[in-house]
Amino acid sequence: MRKVLIPTKLDKQAAAILTDRGYDVVLDATTPFDEQIRRHSDAEVLIVRSEKVTPEVIDALPNLKLIVRAGAGFNTIDIQYARKRDIDVMNTPGANSNGVAEEVIAMILAAFRHVVPGDVSTRAGLWEKSKFMGRELTGKTVGILGLGHIGQLVVKRLAGFETKFLGYDPFLSPALAEKLGVKLCTVEEIFAQADCITLHIPENDETRGMINRRLFDLMKPGAMLVNCARSGIVNEDDLRAVKAEKKIVFCNDVYPKDIAGEKSVRDIADIMLPHLGANTFEANFNAACRAAEQTCDYFEKGITSAVVNKALPDGLDAKYQKLAFAIAGLCKAYLGSDLNPVRIETSFYGDLSKFGPWLTSAIAAGICPDFADRNPKDAAKALEAAGIELVNREVDNNKRYGESVTVDLLAGKDPIYQISVRGTITEGHLMISRVGNFDGLYLDPAGNHLFVEYKDEPGIIGRIAGILGQEKINIVDIRAPQDPDSGRSLSVVRTSVVVPDAVLGKIRESVGAVRAFQFSYNA
């Protein structure tokens, strides 16, 4: 049983999800972090929020395999040292995005309408209405540096204000920018033209201090700067030098350290908040669920798409890892759990041919959860250690299979049985196109599926449906490809619930099935 340490104030749903999946979870938001590390030195997973995970912390957890940041930013974790220790670090991108986006809008409106000083003044018994003449957000030009999850949500949430959007993001495609209604510009153009600029870029060697005097000098008089990203990207001294002259409005939610004490931006910030961007019940719940689900996917399915210190290579869609896992799992279900794998043969078509090693861990995990390792090297070694031969075949792309994956699984001994399954991604969905010689299946593997293979004759599908109906099992979808060479058909019935073994037996006997099995995949 893997031990998961959550030494932070995180929604209990994370512990509930992990416990339900068989993990040993310690959730403690009160005991000091250092003490918890000492107490639970056998933890294999560490889930944190803003806690600093230093080399000392990592060394104190000798069994550690995975660190999960329940949130987007991971600058509090020494990811390079974790990599040296062969420890993967994940974040949960998008889980907190809406909370931060809404905070940005709240700060803009609060600053434009003098909400904070107006409240203080009125509570003091004053009536300074003329002092708090405000500005309207509607129709203004908003500049956004960084159009990831948060930046895009800011655009969507502000759309009702009929604002014009200028954006900078070197990784955003022009087509997506156009779809969002954002005009891509240089950073200089944004600072020169925008009435309000909001920052959503990471802090690194390239961005540290990039918001400096050169850009401040370009800003319109009275323009606003909102920083809910990282404190180090803004040069505070440069802002201090020009703020009064240009009447720049500065709203800030980030600091070098999230601790009590006087803040260096106190004299230049018009609104200061204690890093509240992700501090909502909804964001905490979402981050907790994501952290738990990603941990399960990592160990149980070999999915590493959220790893930030060893990300998937450019050009590989993470969905292909899920596809590889599903295909391998279907192979195993087809041959049966009582047959041990002896050989795995893979074919990666199209551009996937160069990503074969990154799909290995997902294929291995689909066949046996114990093989869900952290990287291709470890997965291949685990298969080798288990005596399972792994062969990546050369492919003929003239077959025009597109970006697809084929897995052949050989299992058993005297005789050895074999099954081959091919799949691809279609319109963003996983699709199983072939099982054995049954082609043209076009099956989305998500959900519960009953597979029944039998000698082709009229009335078989009706008998299967009749038994399911008697058992009050609802049919969601049916696929029934044929293999003319063998004279067999394969009925694949998606059901509302898992078909019990007893019902499988009834169906097998009723139709004289060559095989009947249940396959479930949680997408």
Shape: elongated
Give the N-terminus to C-terminus distance in angstroms. Answer: 24 Å
Helix tally equals 17
Major beta sheet, strand line-up? 8-7-6-9-10-11-12
Name the beta content range.
Answer: 15-25%
In the predicted model, the low-confidence regions spanning at least 5 consecutive residues are: none
- What radius of gyration results from the CA coordinates? 28 Å
Number of E strands: 23
Search tags:
single chain; 523 residues; alpha/beta; 7-stranded parallel beta sheet; 6-stranded mixed beta sheet; 17 helices; elongated
Explain what the structure shows.
With 523 residues, this protein is α/β, with parallel strands linked by helices. Helix content is 33%, strand content 24%. The protein has 17 helices and 23 strands. Strands 8-7-6-9-10-11-12 form a 7-stranded parallel beta sheet, with helices on both faces. Strands 14-13-15-16-17-18 form a 6-stranded mixed beta sheet, with helices on one face. Helix 14 packs across helix 15. The protein is elongated, with a radius of gyration of 28 Å.
SSE map:
Layout: E1 3-6, H1 13-20, E2 24-27, H2 33-39, E3 45-48, H3 55-59, E4 66-69, H4 79-84, E5 88-91, H5 97-112, H6 115-123, E6 141-145, H7 149-158, E7 164-168, H8 174-180, E8 182-184, H9 187-193, E9 196-199, H10 213-216, E10 224-227, H11 236-246, E11 249-252, E12 271-272, H12 281-301, H13 319-335, E13 341-348, H14 356-367, H15 376-385, E14 389-392, E15 404-412, E16 416-426, E17 429-435, E18 438-443, E19 447-455, H16 460-470, E20 475-479, E21 482-483, E22 488-495, H17 501-511, E23 515-521
